[in-house]
Amino acid sequence: MRKIPRTFISEIKKEGNVLLKGWIHELRELSKVKFFLLRDSTGIVQCVVKNPSLFKDFSKLSLESIISLEGKVKKSKIKSEIVTKKDFEVEVEKIEIINKAEELPILVNEKKVSTAFSKRLDYRSIDLRKKRNFTIFKIQAAFLEGMQEWLNSNGFIQVFTPCLLGSASESGAEVFSVLYFDREAFLRQDPQLHRQLTIAGGIEKIYEIGPSWRAELSHTTRHLTEHRTCAVELAFIESEKDVMKVEEELIKAAIKKAREKCEEELKLFDFDIKLKSPFPELKFSSIPEILAEFGKKQSMNEDLDTEAEKLLANYVKEKYKADFFFINGFPFKIKPFYVYHDNEFARSVDLYCRNLELSSGGQREHRHTILMKNIKEKDLNPKNLEWFTKFFKYGVPPHGGFSIGIERLTQAILKLENIKEAVLFPRDPERILP
């Protein structure tokens, strides 16, 4: 007899025989009929056990057990908010327990989250089974797909730069050191310097998707010690404005793809993103005056704190009716040696979504003499950076780029309370397992 091919729950569109596989999401028992909800990665369907000969098999089921069942799809009207296939139910004819689950340490089918977040992360693999949590990564994948499609279609090629460095990119602060055979190496904070060397190698438009690490003892809802970025670099730019145009198009492509592929999933979140094109741009030199209107003092020689970011986000929302905006022209004193600057202001650009910084970028310094002058001004050791700077003696075009935090982007657009929700297995100063 020919075996029925597996049907995914999302594929149930008419009456007929099906073979389903998945997790037991919920169990309900009446005297003459038994019910359970079956979940796979595509949805949830109600299953009905009417045959008394199957009651014994039903009694062996437990929440989150993996099962296989054969049955008949029949039309029905399901009122449950959990069920995704509300027009159909499955009358079970055969049940096979593939792997029985023990009593759960955290609940998967709870309607409201009652488990402490730290415990959820301790049992992350189970926590990911909740529809909302799983959906975050489906949407995140759509963001990445949209960005990659745009980059690929606009002449950018994907590259991979080293994660292990023989020298810290700027200083020994906030980098993780690792034992590399008989000497010390470092996990990269950002792949930017090697992207610049790739531009110096004659590849004019590149992007990279990969991890970075920061040994920062930050205990906030927006920081991680390991995160991923979509990093872009391009040559022969006129100014940082060219970089900003690319970044804006990338964000729009990410959101467009998510809307196309995840229309239903986005309804699970407070998704009301407002895009104004071009993205509003605030000059850093104007920020002290803007913040003064809200009673906030801001020095020209210090970076923005959390309160300032929130006030600026509210200002942009009110004035421009926008969620995304750029801050451009930071003081060179608070920026790294590799940025291009005019006098005291750097062509350095941060992108924000509401009050959350998503990326840092702008125009890079391509002239060797100025680069070395910057290093001296920042009180860095030129010898430690020679592996990078020496190539700028041999003709490097004007270039720039940016690095968008993928988890930050997901957190900002979906309005997640904690960035760790946007990471499969987050890493912070205390958490290195699972």
The CATH H-level homologous superfamily of the largest domain: Bira Bifunctional Protein, Domain 2
Give the beta-strand count.
Answer: 18
Q: Note the total helix count.
A: 12
- Under CATH at level 1, the class of the largest domain stands as Alpha Beta
What is the CA-CA span between the terminal residues?
44 Å
Shape label: elongated
Q: Which structural class best describes the helix and strand composition?
A: alpha+beta
Structural domain tally: 2
- Average pLDDT taken over every residue: 95
Quaternary structure of the protein: single chain
Q: Which spans of ≥5 residues are poorly predicted at pLDDT below 50?
A: none
Question: How large is the radius of gyration?
Answer: 26 Å
Strand content: 25-35%
Gross CATH architecture of the largest domain: 2-Layer Sandwich
Which series of helices and strands comes N to C? EEEHEEHHHEEEEHEEHHEHHEEEEEHHEH
Question: What is the CATH topology classification name of the largest domain?
Answer: BirA Bifunctional Protein, domain 2
Q: Strand order, main sheet: write it out.
A: 6-10-11-18-17-16-13-12
Helix content: 25-40%
Largest sheet data: 8 strands, mixed
Outline of the structure:
By secondary structure, the chain is an alpha+beta fold. Helix content is 27%, strand content 26%. The chain has two domains: 9-99, Nucleic acid-binding proteins (OB fold (Dihydrolipoamide Acetyltransferase, E2P)); 125-422, Bira Bifunctional Protein, Domain 2 (BirA Bifunctional Protein, domain 2).
